[in-house]
Amino acid sequence: MRGCGGLELGQEYRAGWSYSQGVQPVKSPNELYAHAIALEREAAERYAEFARRMDDLGNAAAAEVFTSLARLEEEHLRTLLERTQEVAVPEFRDEQYAWLDAGAPETTARELVFRLLTARQALEIALRAESRAQTFFEKVMLTADDPALRALAREMAAEEGEHIALVEQLLQRTPQPGLDSQVIFER
Fold first, then answer.
1. Which position has the higher pLDDT, 169 or 111?
2. Residues facing 40 on adjacent strands
3. Residue-by-residue DSSP string for 90-103
C-alpha cells in the first residue's frame, strides 16, 4: 500500500524531520488531531507573518500569495477545530512546531532573518515546513496499528502534499534575487 509521498507501509520513512523529536509515537486520532492543529496554527501564523513582511518590502504580489496561503491554513485549522469540538485533544508546546525558531519574536536573530528575507526564501522555508509536516503524517500512517488512525494520517499527509505542490508551483514562478546590500545595512 503506497503512502501519499510514495512510501509503502513498512518502508523506512525519511530522516531529518523535526516534529518527531521528543514526541512519543501517535497512538490515537485525538493525538494526531492535536499535532495537526499545532502544525496548521504555526503555518497560518508564519504565512501571515511572511505576508506582512512582503507588504513592508512593497512586494504586493508576494504579500497576496502569502495572505492566500495563510487563509488556506486558517481554513484547515478551523476545520480541525470544528472536528474536535467535542473531543479531548491533548495540548503540545507550540515551539515544537516552529518554522524559524523557538525564541521570542523580538529576538535579534529573528529580526535579521526578516530583514534579509525574500519572497523566494520565504517560500523555501514554507516548502521545508510543509514537507516536514507531510513526513510526520506519513510516519504516523506507516507506524500506526489503528486503521482509523492510519486513514486519518493518510488524509492529512495528502493535504500537506497539496500544500507542497502549491508552494513548489509558486517557487517555480519566483525568481532568485541578488543580494541587496542596502537592505542589509538599513538602519
1. 169
2. none
3. ----GGGG-SS-SS
**Domain residue ranges in the chain:** 29-100+119-176
Grid cell digits, residue 43 = 503555518
Given a cut of 60, is residue 58 above it in pLDDT?
A: yes
pTM of the model: 0.73
Q: What are phi and psi of 141, to 5 degrees?
A: -60, -40
CATH number of 29-100+119-176: 1.20.1260.10
pLDDT in tens, 109-129: 556 566 678 888 889 988 998
Residue 139 to residues 10, 16, 27, 74, 180, Cα–Cα distance (Å): 10, 12, 12, 24, 40
Residue 11 has pLDDT above 50, yes or no: no
Q: What's the CA angle centered on 13, arms 7 and 16, to 5 degrees?
A: 135
Local structure of residue 4 (DSSP, 8 states): T
